[in-house]
User: What shape does this take?
Amino acid sequence: MKNLTQELNPKRIDKFKLDNLVIEIGFGNGIYITSLAKLFPNKNFLGIEISGESIKKLSKRIKNENLKNVYCVKMDAYWFFYLFLHDNSVDEIYINFPDPWPKKRHIERRITRLENLYLFSKKLKLGGFIQIKTDDLDFYNYTLENAKVLNSFNIKELKNFEDIVRTKYETKWLLMGKEIYVIRLYKVKDAEINIKLKGIRRVKDMAHVKMSRFIDVSKLEDKVFRIDQGLVVKFSKSYHREDGWIIETLLSENDYVHYFFTSFRRKGNEIIVSISPFSEVLKTEGILKFLNWISLFP
Assistant: This one.
Protein backbone atom coordinates (compact mmCIF):
# COMPACT_ATOMS: atom_id res chain seq x y z
CA MET A 1 0.00 0.00 0.00
CA LYS A 2 1.53 3.27 -1.13
CA ASN A 3 1.86 6.30 1.15
CA LEU A 4 0.55 4.39 4.16
CA THR A 5 1.21 6.16 7.44
CA GLN A 6 2.15 3.90 10.31
CA GLU A 7 -0.61 5.21 12.59
CA LEU A 8 -3.67 4.42 10.51
CA ASN A 9 -6.75 6.62 10.36
CA PRO A 10 -9.62 4.24 9.55
CA LYS A 11 -11.69 7.14 8.26
CA ARG A 12 -9.16 7.72 5.48
CA ILE A 13 -8.50 4.23 4.17
CA ASP A 14 -10.55 1.85 2.06
CA LYS A 15 -9.02 -1.57 2.69
CA PHE A 16 -5.84 -2.60 4.48
CA LYS A 17 -3.66 -5.13 2.70
CA LEU A 18 0.00 -5.94 3.21
CA ASP A 19 1.90 -9.12 2.44
CA ASN A 20 3.01 -11.34 5.32
CA LEU A 21 0.59 -9.63 7.68
CA VAL A 22 0.73 -10.35 11.41
CA ILE A 23 -1.78 -8.75 13.80
CA GLU A 24 -1.71 -8.27 17.56
CA ILE A 25 -5.04 -7.40 19.14
CA GLY A 26 -4.68 -5.36 22.32
CA PHE A 27 -0.94 -4.68 22.26
CA GLY A 28 -0.70 -2.72 25.54
CA ASN A 29 2.71 -1.06 25.80
CA GLY A 30 3.80 -2.44 22.41
CA ILE A 31 6.76 -4.53 23.59
CA TYR A 32 5.49 -7.80 22.12
CA ILE A 33 4.66 -6.53 18.63
CA THR A 34 7.83 -4.44 18.27
CA SER A 35 10.00 -7.32 19.47
CA LEU A 36 8.43 -9.62 16.87
CA ALA A 37 8.91 -6.94 14.21
CA LYS A 38 12.63 -6.77 14.92
CA LEU A 39 12.95 -10.56 14.86
CA PHE A 40 11.04 -10.86 11.58
CA PRO A 41 11.85 -7.80 9.43
CA ASN A 42 10.30 -9.40 6.32
CA LYS A 43 6.86 -9.52 7.94
CA ASN A 44 4.43 -6.63 8.39
CA PHE A 45 2.84 -6.07 11.79
CA LEU A 46 -0.40 -4.34 12.70
CA GLY A 47 -1.41 -3.55 16.27
CA ILE A 48 -5.09 -2.93 17.00
CA GLU A 49 -6.05 -1.14 20.22
CA ILE A 50 -8.91 0.86 21.70
CA SER A 51 -6.64 2.64 24.19
CA GLY A 52 -5.34 6.00 23.02
CA GLU A 53 -2.51 5.80 25.56
CA SER A 54 -1.36 2.46 24.11
CA ILE A 55 -1.43 3.94 20.60
CA LYS A 56 0.81 6.78 21.80
CA LYS A 57 3.27 4.35 23.40
CA LEU A 58 3.51 2.15 20.31
CA SER A 59 3.81 5.13 17.96
CA LYS A 60 6.70 6.40 20.10
CA ARG A 61 8.42 2.98 19.95
CA ILE A 62 7.97 2.82 16.17
CA LYS A 63 9.62 6.23 15.80
CA ASN A 64 12.38 5.75 18.37
CA GLU A 65 13.34 2.29 17.07
CA ASN A 66 12.89 3.28 13.40
CA LEU A 67 10.58 0.35 12.68
CA LYS A 68 9.31 0.41 9.12
CA ASN A 69 7.20 -2.74 9.33
CA VAL A 70 4.88 -1.86 12.24
CA TYR A 71 1.49 -0.14 11.96
CA CYS A 72 -1.20 0.61 14.51
CA VAL A 73 -4.83 1.65 14.57
CA LYS A 74 -7.15 2.85 17.32
CA MET A 75 -10.33 0.86 16.73
CA ASP A 76 -12.34 -2.05 18.05
CA ALA A 77 -10.78 -5.21 16.56
CA TYR A 78 -14.12 -6.61 15.39
CA TRP A 79 -14.85 -3.56 13.26
CA PHE A 80 -11.35 -3.33 11.79
CA PHE A 81 -11.47 -6.97 10.74
CA TYR A 82 -15.00 -6.58 9.41
CA LEU A 83 -14.47 -3.34 7.48
CA PHE A 84 -10.86 -3.23 6.37
CA LEU A 85 -9.39 -6.72 5.96
CA HIS A 86 -9.87 -9.01 2.98
CA ASP A 87 -10.77 -12.65 3.57
CA ASN A 88 -7.76 -15.00 3.68
CA SER A 89 -5.28 -12.12 4.03
CA VAL A 90 -3.76 -12.50 7.53
CA ASP A 91 -0.89 -14.86 8.40
CA GLU A 92 -0.97 -14.75 12.20
CA ILE A 93 -3.06 -13.19 14.97
CA TYR A 94 -1.80 -12.76 18.54
CA ILE A 95 -4.05 -12.05 21.52
CA ASN A 96 -2.05 -11.69 24.74
CA PHE A 97 -3.82 -11.66 28.10
CA PRO A 98 -7.12 -10.10 27.04
CA ASP A 99 -9.66 -9.03 29.64
CA PRO A 100 -11.38 -12.32 30.59
CA TRP A 101 -14.62 -10.55 31.58
CA PRO A 102 -15.26 -13.07 34.38
CA LYS A 103 -18.81 -12.01 35.24
CA LYS A 104 -21.55 -13.98 33.49
CA ARG A 105 -23.35 -10.85 32.31
CA HIS A 106 -20.17 -9.67 30.55
CA ILE A 107 -19.35 -12.87 28.64
CA GLU A 108 -20.44 -11.35 25.32
CA ARG A 109 -17.62 -8.81 25.67
CA ARG A 110 -14.94 -11.48 25.46
CA ILE A 111 -12.62 -11.14 22.49
CA THR A 112 -12.96 -14.86 21.71
CA ARG A 113 -16.75 -14.96 21.61
CA LEU A 114 -18.02 -17.13 18.77
CA GLU A 115 -18.79 -14.27 16.36
CA ASN A 116 -15.28 -12.85 16.76
CA LEU A 117 -13.51 -16.17 16.24
CA TYR A 118 -15.66 -16.78 13.17
CA LEU A 119 -14.72 -13.37 11.74
CA PHE A 120 -11.03 -13.80 12.58
CA SER A 121 -11.01 -17.22 10.91
CA LYS A 122 -12.50 -15.74 7.71
CA LYS A 123 -9.67 -13.23 7.48
CA LEU A 124 -6.97 -15.77 8.32
CA LYS A 125 -5.13 -17.57 5.53
CA LEU A 126 -5.24 -21.36 5.36
CA GLY A 127 -2.34 -22.55 7.49
CA GLY A 128 -2.32 -19.32 9.47
CA PHE A 129 -2.97 -19.30 13.19
CA ILE A 130 -4.43 -17.41 16.12
CA GLN A 131 -2.34 -17.57 19.31
CA ILE A 132 -4.07 -16.73 22.58
CA LYS A 133 -2.42 -16.41 25.98
CA THR A 134 -4.29 -16.05 29.26
CA ASP A 135 -3.89 -16.72 32.96
CA ASP A 136 -7.66 -17.27 33.31
CA LEU A 137 -8.64 -20.95 33.02
CA ASP A 138 -12.34 -20.22 32.55
CA PHE A 139 -11.59 -17.87 29.65
CA TYR A 140 -9.22 -20.46 28.18
CA ASN A 141 -11.89 -23.19 28.27
CA TYR A 142 -14.47 -20.79 26.84
CA THR A 143 -12.14 -20.03 23.92
CA LEU A 144 -11.42 -23.71 23.39
CA GLU A 145 -15.12 -24.59 23.22
CA ASN A 146 -15.90 -21.82 20.73
CA ALA A 147 -13.00 -22.91 18.51
CA LYS A 148 -14.38 -26.46 18.50
CA VAL A 149 -17.83 -25.21 17.46
CA LEU A 150 -16.39 -23.59 14.33
CA ASN A 151 -14.52 -26.77 13.39
CA SER A 152 -12.16 -24.82 11.14
CA PHE A 153 -9.06 -25.12 13.30
CA ASN A 154 -6.44 -27.65 14.20
CA ILE A 155 -6.30 -26.85 17.91
CA LYS A 156 -2.96 -27.00 19.69
CA GLU A 157 -2.90 -26.61 23.47
CA LEU A 158 0.65 -25.56 24.25
CA LYS A 159 1.84 -26.82 27.62
CA ASN A 160 4.94 -25.25 29.20
CA PHE A 161 5.17 -22.98 26.17
CA GLU A 162 8.35 -20.93 25.82
CA ASP A 163 7.48 -17.96 23.62
CA ILE A 164 10.23 -16.14 21.76
CA VAL A 165 8.87 -12.91 23.25
CA ARG A 166 7.29 -12.35 26.65
CA THR A 167 5.07 -9.50 27.71
CA LYS A 168 5.87 -7.50 30.84
CA TYR A 169 3.02 -9.07 32.78
CA GLU A 170 3.78 -12.57 31.56
CA THR A 171 7.28 -12.34 32.98
CA LYS A 172 5.90 -11.01 36.26
CA TRP A 173 3.26 -13.75 36.56
CA LEU A 174 5.70 -16.54 35.74
CA LEU A 175 8.02 -15.30 38.49
CA MET A 176 5.02 -15.44 40.83
CA GLY A 177 4.43 -19.07 39.83
CA LYS A 178 1.18 -18.33 37.99
CA GLU A 179 0.16 -20.77 35.28
CA ILE A 180 -0.10 -19.38 31.76
CA TYR A 181 -2.46 -21.06 29.30
CA VAL A 182 -1.58 -20.88 25.61
CA ILE A 183 -3.58 -22.09 22.64
CA ARG A 184 -2.88 -21.98 18.92
CA LEU A 185 -5.70 -22.31 16.43
CA TYR A 186 -4.37 -23.29 12.99
CA LYS A 187 -6.86 -22.68 10.19
CA VAL A 188 -7.24 -25.86 8.15
CA LYS A 189 -10.56 -25.06 6.45
CA ASP A 190 -13.44 -22.59 6.45
CA ALA A 191 -15.87 -22.78 9.35
CA GLU A 192 -18.54 -25.44 8.98
CA ILE A 193 -21.25 -23.16 10.31
CA ASN A 194 -22.40 -19.83 8.98
CA ILE A 195 -22.76 -17.05 11.54
CA LYS A 196 -24.60 -13.87 10.66
CA LEU A 197 -22.31 -11.03 11.65
CA LYS A 198 -23.46 -7.59 12.69
CA GLY A 199 -22.32 -5.08 10.14
CA ILE A 200 -22.48 -1.62 8.68
CA ARG A 201 -22.27 -0.52 5.05
CA ARG A 202 -19.90 2.18 3.91
CA VAL A 203 -20.82 4.78 1.30
CA LYS A 204 -18.67 6.96 -0.93
CA ASP A 205 -20.46 10.27 -0.59
CA MET A 206 -21.77 12.12 2.46
CA ALA A 207 -24.05 14.81 1.04
CA HIS A 208 -25.75 17.42 3.20
CA VAL A 209 -29.53 17.68 3.46
CA LYS A 210 -31.85 20.67 3.64
CA MET A 211 -34.51 21.71 6.14
CA SER A 212 -37.26 24.18 5.30
CA ARG A 213 -37.38 25.53 8.84
CA PHE A 214 -35.00 26.00 11.74
CA ILE A 215 -35.40 23.93 14.91
CA ASP A 216 -34.30 24.90 18.40
CA VAL A 217 -31.18 22.75 18.54
CA SER A 218 -30.69 23.42 22.26
CA LYS A 219 -33.85 21.39 22.96
CA LEU A 220 -32.14 18.30 21.55
CA GLU A 221 -29.54 18.31 24.33
CA ASP A 222 -29.40 15.06 26.35
CA LYS A 223 -32.15 13.50 24.22
CA VAL A 224 -32.02 9.94 22.84
CA PHE A 225 -33.94 8.82 19.74
CA ARG A 226 -34.32 5.45 18.04
CA ILE A 227 -34.16 6.20 14.31
CA ASP A 228 -34.36 2.64 13.02
CA GLN A 229 -33.56 -0.89 14.07
CA GLY A 230 -29.97 -0.84 15.30
CA LEU A 231 -29.68 2.92 14.80
CA VAL A 232 -29.86 5.15 17.88
CA VAL A 233 -28.75 8.75 18.33
CA LYS A 234 -27.90 10.65 21.50
CA PHE A 235 -27.32 14.41 21.53
CA SER A 236 -25.17 16.24 24.06
CA LYS A 237 -24.08 19.87 24.28
CA SER A 238 -25.02 22.37 21.57
CA TYR A 239 -23.12 25.50 20.55
CA HIS A 240 -24.50 28.60 18.91
CA ARG A 241 -22.59 30.00 15.95
CA GLU A 242 -23.02 33.12 13.86
CA ASP A 243 -24.69 31.21 11.01
CA GLY A 244 -26.46 28.49 13.04
CA TRP A 245 -25.72 25.73 15.54
CA ILE A 246 -23.63 22.62 16.04
CA ILE A 247 -24.42 19.85 18.51
CA GLU A 248 -22.35 16.96 19.87
CA THR A 249 -23.76 13.72 18.49
CA LEU A 250 -23.27 10.04 19.32
CA LEU A 251 -24.75 7.66 16.76
CA SER A 252 -24.81 3.91 17.43
CA GLU A 253 -25.11 1.91 14.21
CA ASN A 254 -25.36 -1.82 14.93
CA ASP A 255 -23.05 -1.19 17.91
CA TYR A 256 -20.49 0.74 15.86
CA VAL A 257 -20.31 4.12 17.57
CA HIS A 258 -19.81 7.37 15.64
CA TYR A 259 -18.91 10.61 17.43
CA PHE A 260 -19.31 13.90 15.56
CA PHE A 261 -20.81 17.36 15.51
CA THR A 262 -24.03 17.85 13.58
CA SER A 263 -24.12 21.24 11.89
CA PHE A 264 -27.24 23.34 11.25
CA ARG A 265 -26.25 26.26 9.00
CA ARG A 266 -28.46 28.99 7.56
CA LYS A 267 -28.20 29.56 3.82
CA GLY A 268 -30.77 31.99 2.52
CA ASN A 269 -34.20 30.66 3.42
CA GLU A 270 -32.93 27.13 3.98
CA ILE A 271 -31.12 25.27 6.73
CA ILE A 272 -28.25 23.04 5.60
CA VAL A 273 -27.77 20.00 7.84
CA SER A 274 -24.47 18.15 7.61
CA ILE A 275 -21.63 16.56 9.53
CA SER A 276 -19.57 19.48 10.77
CA PRO A 277 -16.19 20.02 9.06
CA PHE A 278 -14.78 19.91 12.62
CA SER A 279 -15.60 16.17 12.59
CA GLU A 280 -14.22 13.24 10.65
CA VAL A 281 -16.44 10.18 10.31
CA LEU A 282 -16.59 6.79 8.69
CA LYS A 283 -19.06 7.34 5.86
CA THR A 284 -21.89 4.86 6.29
CA GLU A 285 -25.53 4.26 5.43
CA GLY A 286 -26.38 4.88 9.08
CA ILE A 287 -25.09 8.44 8.96
CA LEU A 288 -27.06 9.10 5.76
CA LYS A 289 -30.20 7.76 7.47
CA PHE A 290 -29.50 10.01 10.46
CA LEU A 291 -29.12 13.12 8.28
CA ASN A 292 -32.36 12.38 6.44
CA TRP A 293 -34.12 11.71 9.74
CA ILE A 294 -32.95 14.94 11.38
CA SER A 295 -33.93 16.97 8.28
CA LEU A 296 -37.53 15.85 8.84
CA PHE A 297 -37.44 16.36 12.60
CA PRO A 298 -40.78 17.80 13.83
Observations:
- The chain has two domains: 7-187, 209-295.
- The chain is about 25% helix and 30% strand.
- The chain has a mean pLDDT of 93.
- Helices lie at 31-39, 52-64, 77-84, 114-123, 137-150, 168-175, 285-295.
